[in-house]
Write a structure and sequence with these properties.
By secondary structure, this protein is an alpha/beta fold. The chain contains 5 helices and 7 strands, in the order αβαβαββαβαββ. α1 runs parallel beside α2.
Length: 200
């Protein structure tokens, strides 16, 4: 397992209003796009402290959260309750894939940390049940200034055509890329998209 780049960040991760508000917008976009129900098992890729996962968990049977940061998962566990919980996995599922299948995969602002996109989409395609969906939110193409520290960042956002082409080539259907939010920082604005697709 790689060094935990989020060890310090995890301490105050939920305290940044921009991050919390962006995650809420992503959750609303997913709920508007897909009909969730209490029979669904959902995989949250890059679950972090559960900002997105806990929003979605209210609408499904169970959210399974995967992350390579032990520090983030420790913060998530502090928020678990008997009424609303996320089952967490400290694992790199690209190098060490899960064997179970899920009704959906969600992800918030994690894809830019994944070096090999083809391997990622190929791997998660195997983890999604037939007729299941993916809903992945991240940054639109940017100039590399979104993060103050680009350690562990492999992509400065994504171009619509390129990302849709990769997802389609890895077996996903009905691939869509839509702008859902703008994050305003002092020096510039950054677009956030939702990539959605189904498996069939």
């Amino acid at each position: 397992m790689q060094k935990d780049h989020f060890e310090e960040k995890a301490k105050n991760w939920d305290g940044e209003s921009i991050r919390v508000n962006n995650t809420r917008t992503i959750s609303e976009a997913i709920l508007e796009k897909f009909e969730l129900n209490k029979e669904m098992d959902v995989l949250d890729f890059g679950v972090g402290t559960g900002l997105l996962g806990f929003e979605i968990a209210q609408h499904v049977k169970k959210v399974h959260g995967i992350d390579t940061s032990k520090s983030m998962l420790e913060k998530l566990e502090e928020k678990n309750t008997p009424q609303l919980s996320i089952k967490s996995y400290h694992q790199d599922i690209i190098e060490n894939p899960l064997t179970q299948e899920f009704d959906a995969l969600i992800s918030s602002m994690t894809l830019h940390h994944i070096e090999d996109l083809e391997k990622f989409f190929t791997t998660i395609h195997k983890n999604i049940k037939d007729k299941g969906f993916i809903a992945i939110a991240d940054l639109e193409k940017e100039d590399g200034t979104f993060h103050g520290d680009n350690t562990g960042v492999f992509h400065f956002g994504f171009e619509k055509e390129e990302l849709c082409k990769i997802a389609s080539a890895c077996g996903f259907k009905d691939v869509e890329f839509e702008s859902i939010n703008i994050i305003s920082k002092p020096h510039r604005d950054f677009g956030v998209f939702l990539l959605s697709a189904v498996k069939r």
